[in-house]
Description:
Elements: H1 3-7, H2 14-26, H3 33-43, H4 49-64, H5 66-72, H6 80-88, H7 97-108, H8 117-120, H9 125-131, H10 136-143, E1 149-153, H11 160-169, E2 174-176, E3 183-186, H12 196-199, E4 203-205, H13 208-217, E5 224-227, H14 234-242, E6 248-253, H15 256-269, E7 274-278, H16 285-288, E8 294-300, H17 315-318, H18 321-339, E9 342-352, H19 361-370, E10 374-377, H20 379-385, E11 397-399, H21 401-404, E12 409-416
Parallel strand pairs: 5-6, 5-8, 6-7, 8-9
Antiparallel strand pairs: 1-3, 1-4, 2-3, 9-12, 10-12, 11-12
Helix pairs in contact: 2-4, 4-6, 6-7, 13-14, 18-19
Amino acid sequence: MNEAQRRRGGRLPAQLAAARELLAAVLRFDAPADAVVSRYFRAHAQLGQRDRHVLAETVYQIVRQLRLWRHLAQGAAAPLDLCLLALGWQGDEAVLGDALRAWRAQVRALDLGGLPPALRYSLPDWLAQCLDADGFESLASGLLQPAPLDLRVNTLRATREEALRQLRAAGIDAALTQLSPWGLRVQGKPALQRLAVFTDGLVEVQDEGSQLLALLLAPRRGEMVADFCAGAGGKTLALGALMRNSGRLYAFDTAAHRIDKLRPRLARSGLSNVHPVVIAHERDDRVRRLAGKLDRVLVDAPCSGTGTLRRNPDLKWRLQPADVARLVEQQGAIVRAAAQLLKPGGRLVYATCSLLRTENQDVVDAFVADHRAFESVDAGVILAQQHLALPGPRPMLELRPDRDGTDGFFAAVLQRRHET
């Protein structure tokens, strides 16, 4: 159905009309897509679970492929948004009607090999240039795929095998992850929140790559540790479990609403050594009082999030180069402040979920150049000591969805030298 037909009184099927409305809201890019989708579903409580699944999956597929599909829809008889919906539709194809289905079949038969890579993989030109290195096409293709659902088993509550059995008994298709010793990968998007395995604190949602940061920091029982940018606390909980609920673990963050999300997770976990603290900035007095006293500090710095584009594809359309430049300045300030907390011999792990060198290697290089009291430690060696052998040399941990099956992650290990 074209726009003229619609104006003459034709009606779109209800499901397609709802998808059109939701897509228009998401493509304004004035808020994260997941927040827009959640807000739409709250306002349309009459939508059933199946409708919600079709709408959400369709819209996310369009956002992933937006640049390419807009290009392919040029000159089509139907309105642009209906063309986008036809290409991304995840429901019953009959809803689309004969004309849209026929147009979609023509588009799918096209040879796209001659298109510029940034267009073919639906990336902004500036971002494609930043990612343009060995394996670009593999990485860019991997970023277009939906991300799996990973869980971390809380070893204070259960073994990985026990949690796996409970998930399977509840009809959840799950398997052991390949890298994380605590990870489970779940097929599909099952509702976990009401299952006992979740409410009793046996598992938490956390990407497998993120779980490895705790292994790099490797906190010991009885130590004083800080998660400097704790957010909602996924990595904090992993650190607390590694410490076997001993010592003192600070969870710092500048946003009270993020710390508020940590509190119910903390209650489920059974941890009592975690101390959530809302700070004003990285130089807050509550931080400075700990200078030179901590054994280990994790800095999972605010970043572009480009490593999470499988989960948050709208980021690539909302992010601008100026945003990255601002983040790099912030990352440098945070890592410098966090480093002051360490005692001699202490360990700092600087991490991001970014694929951009400017936020990763360049930040670490600048810090080490200005702080001779710190030296880099081989991340691959640390992981091997904990019986995790990753292929190839890994002086710094760099994970990619196409190669490692995880979100994109970077982590560098920095050690404060012992005073002489």
